[in-house]
């Protein structure tokens, strides 16, 4: 194959595990189906239950939507690779997969920041909550998160796939991701790396700081409440979101901040990437259904119908 006229990539992230490919296929198929059913149930419950037609649950519905879309960008192709041993993906298919993955993950980062701000207003300014977080403002914030996520991805996708590829077409991952694709380039990657660092840094840091500062104020306000019952009620309104934030950022930092050339560590990193891309979206609806009374009631009514 002429690598100067690259038409496809080979995803080798799972090719070194032939002896466990069928158990992996079954495990990830079950996890993916649970993710679809769990997040779909929350979406349906929020849509049907009139009491849940509030800004907080509108944000949760968008999170569930993202938790359906994110694994859907990578898992079907991964399952096909496991079942057929065909690890190829077309150049255009790889670009589209990277575009949607970066867009959806970026949107989730922004959405978690908006959700943290929503909880900050609810706990720190409860009497003004309905004035500050109106349905219109909530819709504007959510539209902004989706627009920012997809715009951010356009820039990264164009800068990544404008590179020349002549080293290899073997992607050391089970999906197309920026670091692995850039590593295959034989042209200068300076601009692509600078764009990833600067734009990703600005967007990611601003969203992370918004989330962090919101929770600093939230925790500070909760600690000032004198009664234990008041503290418990205040904390219960943001506990589910805090768990989701910790899970999201914890796995993301562990996945992207520890790169190594060791083959054993690379194999472990690929497994962690799978957990980050598949397990986290499955756990989010479980966390909300277990920790949130209103969601539990709505799900019970949905199951009883």
UniProtKB/TrEMBL annotation:
Bilayer-crossing regions: 20-45, 57-76, 96-117, 138-158, 194-218, 239-259, 271-290
A GO term for molecular function: olfactory receptor activity
Lineage: superkingdom: Eukaryota
Keyword Transmembrane helix (UniProt): yes
Topology with respect to the bilayer: Multi-pass membrane protein
GO cellular component terms attached to this protein's record: plasma membrane
Compartment(s) where it occurs, according to its Swiss-Prot or TrEMBL record: Cell membrane
Keyword vocabulary terms for this entry: Cell membrane, G-protein coupled receptor, Membrane, Olfaction, Receptor, Sensory transduction, Transducer, Transmembrane, Transmembrane helix
Domain G-protein coupled receptors family 1 profile: 38-288
Keyword Coiled coil: no
Family note: Belongs to the G-protein coupled receptor 1 family.
Protein name: Olfactory receptor
Native organism: Dipodomys ordii (Ord's kangaroo rat)
Taxon lineage: Eukaryota, Metazoa, Chordata, Craniata, Vertebrata
């Amino acid at each position: 194959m002429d690598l100067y006229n690259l038409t496809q990539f080979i995803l080798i992230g799972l090719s070194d595990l032939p002896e466990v490919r069928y158990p992996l296929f079954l495990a990830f198929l079950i996890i993916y189906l649970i993710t679809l059913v769990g997040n779909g149930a929350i979406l349906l419950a929020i849509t049907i239950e009139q009491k849940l037609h509030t800004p907080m649950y509108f944000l949760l519905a968008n999170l569930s939507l993202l938790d359906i879309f994110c694994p859907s960008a990578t898992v079907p192709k991964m399952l096909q690779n496991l079942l057929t041993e065909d690890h190829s993906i077309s150049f255009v298919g790889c670009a589209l997969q990277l575009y949607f993955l970066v867009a959806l993950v970026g949107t989730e980062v922004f959405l978690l920041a908006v959700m943290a701000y929503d909880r900050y207003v609810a706990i720190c300014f409860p009497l003004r909550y309905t004035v500050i977080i109106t349905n219109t403002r909530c819709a504007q914030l959510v539209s902004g998160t989706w627009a920012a996520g997809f715009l951010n991805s356009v820039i990264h996708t164009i800068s990544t796939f404008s590179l020349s590829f002549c080293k290899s077409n073997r992607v050391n991952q089970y999906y197309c991701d920026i670091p692995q694709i850039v590593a295959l380039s034989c042209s200068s990657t300076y601009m692509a790396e600078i764009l990833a660092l600067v734009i990703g840094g600005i967007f990611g840091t601003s969203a992370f700081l918004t989330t962090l500062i919101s929770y600093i104020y939230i925790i500070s306000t909760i600690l000032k409440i004198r009664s234990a019952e008041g503290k418990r009620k205040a904390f219960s309104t943001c506990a589910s979101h805090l768990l989701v934030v910790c899970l999201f950022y914890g796995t993301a930092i562990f996945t992207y901040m520890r790169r190594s050339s060791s083959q054993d560590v690379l194999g472990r990193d690929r497994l962690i990437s799978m957990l980050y891309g598949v397990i986290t979206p499955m756990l989010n609806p479980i966390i909300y259904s277990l920790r949130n009374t209103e969601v539990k009631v709505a799900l019970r009514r949905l199951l009883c119908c």
